[in-house]
Amino acid sequence: MNPVFADLPTTVFETMSRLARQHGAVNLGQGFPDDPGPLDIRRAAADAVFDGWNQYPPMMGLPELRQAVADHYGRIQNLALSADDVMVTSGATEALAGALLALIEPGDEVVLFQPMYDAYLPLVRRAGGIPRFVTLKPPHWDFSDEDLARAFSPRTRVVLFNSPLNPTGTVFGRAALERLARFCTAHDAVALCDEVWEHVTFDRAGHIPMMSLPGMRERTVKVGSAGKIFGLTGWKVGFTVAAPALMRVLSKAHQFLTFTTPPNLQSAVAYGLGKPAEHFDAMRSGLQRSRDRLAAGLAERGFAVLPTAGTYFLNVDLAPLGVTDDVGFCERLVAQEGVAAVPVSAFYAEDAVRSVVRFCFAKADATLDAALERLDGAASRR
Fold first, then answer.
1. What is the pLDDT of residue 13?
2. Which of 317, 340, 295 is nearest to 31 (CA)?
3. What's the pLDDT score for residue 134?
4. Which CDD domains is this protein grouped with (predicted)?
5. Any bridge partners for residue 220, and if so which?
6. Which of the residues in the chain have pLDDT under 70?
7. What is the pLDDT of residue 42?
8. φ, ψ for residue 131, nearest 5 deg
9. Do residues 77 and 241 make contact, with C-beta atoms less than 8 angstroms apart?
10. Residue 25 φ then ψ, to 5°
11. Separation of alpha carbons 138 and 52, rounded Å
12. Looking at residue 74, what is its pLDDT?
């Protein structure tokens, strides 16, 4: 057995979801919306099954979707792209896995920012990479030149960077991106940018793509996700955007992973990406309202809510309550209070923060209110 996978424990997400089912809990641990997603986009996918092509689509993706991605990023993020800069993948995780297999050789170093999406570390290790960590701490989850200097070395090949950041909800601003870009340029490193939450930002904290910074166009791989853009997380339609020299190798890795992605879903995503800006504004407004509803309810119940400017998640710092074991807290919360959350220490490989827990707010009002009702007095019963 490959030890990278054989030695992995059961993920905290699976554990908390199992406990949520076992205790009949309100599940604010897993990150998916309650609703089924936009009706017209789902109907476009259904129509494409009956009226469209159901055999292998092109390996790089349907031409109409590749062009739709390029046009969409041109309108929304002012990126000058062509369809040749775009490849369709079976979800963002496949895009990340393929990129790591394509970009690094055994012994190359990869800079990771923790807390981080749980797939990053095993994917890096499976590709033969050596992880080097930049550790972020609450409440601001920021990094300095000194933090980067400790992580970068002459062996750095790739920087895997997530903004907006899951699980913290941080949307990194231009100053942080420029800081990271300087190090990428100085060390001739490729920035593999997980930007799946790019549309899910609040309080006018607009997403800045790393690719748009001076000197980064030729050394950035941008990864996006239709699942996050449209709240259709089960569709697993992702996008990789890169300059031709990078795309030539990225496409070879993709060819021998999933090869392609269901054509009806690609057609529907192409349709959805053509929607006007008002559609995406309304999506953000609805999620921001849900964020504020849950944040206010948690604060009223004595929890210290950390700011979140993006993603489906907000975090609570339990340190003011004297809690130093976020895993134990979440286990008690689901068993005794009937609400499932996720301990943020699970997103660290080392030097973990152990006082922060994550809640998903991409839920119906009734779901959020039911969770808050169950949390009455929970802060005092820590």
1. 81
2. 340
3. 98
4. AAT_like (cd00609)
5. 191
6. 382
7. 98
8. -75, 140
9. no
10. -85, 160
11. 49
12. 97
Which has the closest alpha carbon to 37: 371, 283, 277, 261?
Answer: 283
Nearest to 120 by CA among 238, 212, 11, 254: 11
Angle (nearest 5°) at CA 239 between 28 and 268: 80
Q: In the prediction, which pLDDT does 32 show?
A: 86
Q: Say which DSSP state 130 is in.
A: E
Q: Are 169 and 307 in contact (CB under 8 A)?
A: yes
Contacts of 229 (CB under 8 A, 6+ apart): 198, 199, 272, 273, 280
CB 194 within 8 A of CB 164: no
CA dist., res. 6 & res. 285, Å (int): 43
CATH number at residue 321: 3.90.1150.10
User: Contact, 221 vs 240, CB < 8 A?
Assistant: yes
Whether residue 128 is found in the same domain as residue 199: yes
Could you tell me the CA-to-CA distances from 40 to 46, 54, 61, 216, 298 in Å, in that order?
10, 20, 22, 36, 35
Nearest to 382 by CA among 315, 303, 314: 303
Position 188, amino acid: D
Q: What pLDDT was estimated at residue 9?
A: 84
What percent of the chain lies above the pLDDT cut of 70?
Answer: 100
Question: Hunting for tokens 């997380």 — which residue is that?
Answer: 233
Where is the domain boundary, 242, 275, 308?
A: 275
Q: State residue 183's pLDDT score.
A: 98
Measured distance CA(137)–CA(294) in Å, rounded: 23
Domain range enclosing 291: 3-30+278-381
Contact by Cβ (8 Å): 61, 266: yes
Give the end of a domain, one of 223, 244, 275: 275
| C-alpha to C-alpha distance for 59 and 36, rounded to whole angstroms | 28
Q: Are residues 264 and 345 in the same domain?
A: no
Would you give the end-to-end CA distance of the chain in angstroms?
Answer: 41
DSSP code at position 56: P
CA–CA distances in Å: residue 160 to residues 17, 100, 372, 381: 27, 9, 35, 39
Q: Looking at residue 31, what is its pLDDT?
A: 86
Taking a C-beta distance cutoff of 8 angstroms, is the pair 168, 113 a contact? no
pLDDT of residue 380: 77
Nearest-angstrom CA–CA distance, 322 and 303: 12
137/134 Cα distance (integer angstroms): 10
User: What is the per-residue pLDDT for 196?
Assistant: 98
